[in-house]
Amino acid sequence: MSDTTEGFISGGFVFYNNFDSANLAKVIQVDVNAANDNGENENDTKSAKNGHVEENLDYEFNLWTKHDCHGTEYENSNRTWFYFGVKAPKSGALVRLNVINLNKQVKMFSQGMCPVYKVLPGHPQWERIRDKPIYALDEKSNEFTLSFTYRTPDNLKAITYFAFTYPFTYNDLQTQLKKIQSRLARRTINSVDDIYYHRECVIKSLEGRRLELLTISSYQNISMEREDSLMNLFPENNELRPFKFKNKKVIFISARVHPGETPSSFVLNGLLNLLLNREDPIAITLRRLYVFKLIPMLNPDGVAKGHYRMDTKGVNLNRVYLNPSESDHPTIFAARTLIRYYHNFYKLPEETDIKIEKSHVSLEENRDSNLIIPESVTNVVRDTTNHLLEQVTLMSLEEKSKSDLTYDKCHKAKENILRVKSKDVEERRRPETADNKRKLAKQPKETEESGIFLYVDLHGHASKKGIFMYGNYFDDSDESITCLLLPKLMSLNNPNFHFTSCNFAERNMYLIDKRDGMSREGSGRVAVYKLTGLIRSYTLECNYNSGRLINALPPRVRDNMSKIQTPIYVPPKYTPAVYEEVGAALGPSILDLTGSNPNSRLSNSQYHSLRGLKSYLKLTYANNCTAPLHKPLHKRKVLGNLSDRSVKSLDEGDEIIYRNCRREN
């Protein structure tokens, strides 16, 4: 083997590792004519084969990937991700590649997980390898080896790329955002319902990469004032802050805090594509009602370096949200600062260490390079009133947010959070006990007093099958139902979302990682709840491979019955398209939360309405209150155990859903 600027040369093959997200460390050619018996004891090695009768190999190579933070003082044991390219000296040759030093992933690959490949030029689309890979686990060294074969392409100049799963690199993100910006710059804005889009750099990562922030809304209720320039954030002087919006809550979505969890990028892309659709009525309604703040890549350094879980200092950034350091964890520090800012309706208490530099820029003085507003639209925007928005939406009075929160209320809420901040830090360092967890779990009810409506952090998942959510635990039944509602709606809007796999247990908020000893209390989902009191604070997880079940979706109210697709009953292998559908399903599910969906599935479901769904969740919660909320909720058990006294105490809506459920059973 010899090293080159491109990678490694071995046996006439060139192995490439000099590109974004690649992480190949070493390559050694294996003599294919040598005896198979390598002296391994059957008790030391476990292997599984796909039963395929293998043809004679022409070449075989052992490959080693880089650990996260390879070659630095921060090097650690994470080594699941791999991504590299191969150029062969001979066409049509059968080659076996053995990736030697991976983390133990027996469960995932025993369930049919396969790496992905593409060929440039010739086969530019990523897809899973065709032959099932072979895996082996050395019990002594605890090293996991993954082996797979491929045929070298006819074009000797072609490069075959292999990856653990579908890649989405930092360069891919930059290319995508440039295309979006170029496309939107050519449009003409004619309506207040058109797309308001703003891209900016919040902060630079430890290695100088951009932390991107996308703001998407409509021109409904846009103000004459820009968001504040916060001290030590927004380093690009030529980029202006986006405009503020009146009476519109923020939906905050982030992805790729763990760099190897690429499904999260495709989920975010699915939501992004929906929000940038000018014709879709769901997208139009979402933009009318909310301001979307999207951070597509929280760990750009880890992504570029080909890490699986850590940043370039060996830190799991999804454990530092409680008290991130501006110098050590700049991207999480920036994300938390933004969440606090939007939670307080674009304001920060004077006591915080964040200095505000006011930036009043009127629409007429707009200098934003990617925003062109005709004077006619400017006049329409200026004349748009809150009353107009209320006429457009279908939200009931009891579900409307309290949008006139005063600065005094924000100030008081922030003082309460600051008062317990030092105590929280001390508590999370103590041994995990039930008493400690109970104290930390109780938070002031700030949801209605928050400028944020929803927070979702997107992830990938290696062991648990399916696509599901983690939510926080609440003692109060109404808060629990509020937390359960979005995941349940997702199961009505996406065939691959597993509501029964969701976890809302208190224990899941404070689990200690075996590898680094850090608590999930520092994750985005839990820390955002502690900071804001936001009930709708979630982690969305996507398995890399497949799921356990398929949901039969009820038709939308405006669906033509002849166009309704025949349901699929076998869970598919997950692809970027499947993940993007999950992101797109967030849109109608968010609108269903407030009865604002113009093309909802709820009325054609067994629950008939939002009220009926809430009543069903109430019944399941009431009769499973002694069991963990992450356990599957069985309707037959709920109704069978419902006492006569409980039935008599139901309100009219609950009685309707109860009777319907009884008839179904």
Helix and strand content put the structural class at alpha+beta
Question: Number of DSSP strands?
Answer: 24
CA gyration radius, whole angstroms: 26 Å
Give the overall average pLDDT.
Answer: 82
| Biggest sheet architecture | 7 strands, antiparallel
Oligomer: single chain
Low-confidence stretches: 37-53, 351-376, 380-447, 626-653
Distance between the termini: 68 Å
* Total count of helical runs of at least 4 residues: 17
Beta-strand residue percentage: 15-25%
Summarize the amount of helix as a percent range: 25-40%
Strand order of the largest sheet: 1-2-3-7-13-9-10
**Shape by Cα distribution:** globular
Break the fold down into its secondary structure elements and pairings.
Layout: E1 2-3, E2 7-10, E3 13-16, E4 24-30, E5 45-48, E6 59-65, E7 83-87, E8 94-102, H1 106-110, E9 116-120, E10 123-128, E11 134-138, E12 143-151, E13 159-163, H2 170-185, E14 195-204, E15 210-218, E16 222-226, E17 229-230, E18 243-245, E19 249-255, H3 263-275, H4 281-289, E20 290-295, H5 300-305, H6 330-343, E21 356-357, H7 375-383, H8 386-392, H9 407-428, H10 434-441, E22 452-461, E23 467-470, H11 477-493, H12 524-532, E24 537-543, H13 576-592, H14 610-623, H15 635-640, H16 644-648, H17 652-664
Parallel strand pairs: 6-8, 19-20, 19-22, 22-24
Antiparallel strand pairs: 1-2, 2-3, 3-7, 4-6, 5-11, 7-13, 8-12, 9-10, 9-13, 11-12, 14-15, 15-20, 16-18, 17-21, 23-24
